[in-house]
């Protein structure tokens, strides 16, 4: 009876929801960042094709946001298993939901910031080359938001084996 | 009638074009090959490096501690990003040098 209280049947639902939220929100952010900065890059590339290589940096950074969510999803999926072998507690379910939401929603925020900064930054870089270092710094600070979510999710994830 | 006249004049234009001596057309690719190899390499690295390093280090180095392996994967993703930024910088510099050299050659001729 005691065990059933801690590991109810619906507990894995929350863990699965965590995986889904991490992947979905993170990829929404990465997709927005890629698409919005891609608009700016194609606008710049028609006038200055030599700047394409440098302008692609926001796209690479959006890709990293998706990698963060992928890592957390793989981590959570590694901790889950079907009931007879593994008793999945409700605590683990909520914790994995928290992991997924923290990495997913921070990824959404970071991707949104990267998209807008990438679009405008690349367009301004076409007119003023000195803005490049500033643009990369702003992009890094935007991407660090996603990294914070990843760190929190990693620390949360260690609690499952307490 | 007007349309037919236009057609005839168009045809005469095309005939003139054909009779012109063959010019050597520019067939060098718009994007140089080494740039494409660079981009392909970084795409592959972006796909393989983080998740590959996670599964590689999970049981060999960290002995099943998935937190450290996950952190390694995140670090590897950032290493790829740093590599891309550095290569993008050097790419633009080498492009500028090549352009300057071509300019010099043209002046020499």
TrEMBL record, chain A:
V-ATPase proteolipid subunit C-like domain mapped to chain residues: 18-76, 97-156
Key words, A-Z: Hydrogen ion transport, Ion transport, Membrane, Transmembrane, Transmembrane helix, Transport, Vacuole
Record's GO cellular component terms: fungal-type vacuole; proton-transporting V-type ATPase, V0 domain; vacuolar membrane
Domain of life where this protein originates: Eukaryota
Coiled coil ranges: none
Bilayer topology annotation: Multi-pass membrane protein
Recorded family membership: Belongs to the V-ATPase proteolipid subunit family.
Function: Proton-conducting pore forming subunit of the V0 complex of vacuolar(H+)-ATPase (V-ATPase), a multisubunit enzyme composed of a peripheral complex (V1) that hydrolyzes ATP and a membrane integral complex (V0) that translocates protons. V-ATPase is responsible for acidifying and maintaining the pH of intracellular compartments.
The protein's assembly and partners: V-ATPase is a heteromultimeric enzyme composed of a peripheral catalytic V1 complex (components A to H) attached to an integral membrane V0 proton pore complex (components: a, c, c', c'', d, e, f and VOA1). The decameric c-ring forms the proton-conducting pore, and is composed of eight proteolipid subunits c, one subunit c' and one subunit c''.
Protein name, entry field: V-type proton ATPase proteolipid subunit
Biological source species: Venustampulla echinocandica
Automatic annotation (TrEMBL), chain B:
Coarse class of the protein's main subcellular location: endoplasmic reticulum
Keywords: Cytoplasmic vesicle, Endoplasmic reticulum, Membrane, Transmembrane, Transmembrane helix
Cell location: Endoplasmic reticulum membrane; Endoplasmic reticulum-Golgi intermediate compartment membrane; Cytoplasmic vesicle, COPII-coated vesicle membrane
Keyword Nuclease part of the UniProt annotation: no
Sequence ranges of Basic and acidic residues compositional bias: 13-23
Protein's membrane topology: Multi-pass membrane protein
Transmembrane spans: 35-56, 68-89
Compositional bias of kind Polar residues: 1-12
InterPro entries linked to this entry: Vma21
Pfam families according to UniProt: VMA21
Function (record text): Required for the assembly of the V0 complex of the vacuolar ATPase (V-ATPase) in the endoplasmic reticulum.
UniProt cross-references to PANTHER family, sorted A to Z: VACUOLAR ATPASE ASSEMBLY INTEGRAL MEMBRANE PROTEIN VMA21
Name of the molecule in the record: Vacuolar ATPase assembly integral membrane protein VMA21
Organism: Venustampulla echinocandica
């Amino acid at each position: 009876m005691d065990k059933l209280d801690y590991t109810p049947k619906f507990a894995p639902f929350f863990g699965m929801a965590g995986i889904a939220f991490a992947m979905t929100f993170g990829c929404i952010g990465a997709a927005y960042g890629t698409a919005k900065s891609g608009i700016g890059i194609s606008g710049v590339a028609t006038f200055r094709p030599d700047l394409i290589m440098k302008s692609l940096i926001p796209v690479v950074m959006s890709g990293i946001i998706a990698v963060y969510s992928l890592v957390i999803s793989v981590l959570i999926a590694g901790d889950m298993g079907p009931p007879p072998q593994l008793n999945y507690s409700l605590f683990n379910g909520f914790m994995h939901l928290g992991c997924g939401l923290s990495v997913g929603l921070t990824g959404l925020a970071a991707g949104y910031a990267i998209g807008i900064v990438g679009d405008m930054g690349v367009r301004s870089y076409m007119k003023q080359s000195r803005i490049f270092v500033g643009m990369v710094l702003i992009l890094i600070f935007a991407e660090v938001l996603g990294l914070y979510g990843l760190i929190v999710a990693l620390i949360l994830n260690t609690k499952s084996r307490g | 009638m007007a349309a037919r006249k236009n057609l005839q004049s168009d045809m005469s234009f095309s005939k003139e074009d054909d009779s012109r001596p063959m010019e050597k057309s520019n067939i060098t690719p718009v994007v140089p090959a080494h740039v494409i190899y660079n981009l392909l390499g970084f795409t592959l690295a972006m796909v393989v490096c983080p998740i590959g390093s996670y599964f590689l280090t999970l049981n060999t180095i960290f002995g099943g501690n998935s937190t450290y392996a996950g952190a390694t994967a995140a670090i590897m993703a950032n290493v790829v990003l740093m590599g891309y930024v550095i290569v993008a910088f050097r790419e633009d510099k080498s492009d500028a040098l090549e352009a300057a050299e071509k300019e010099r050659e043209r002046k020499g001729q």
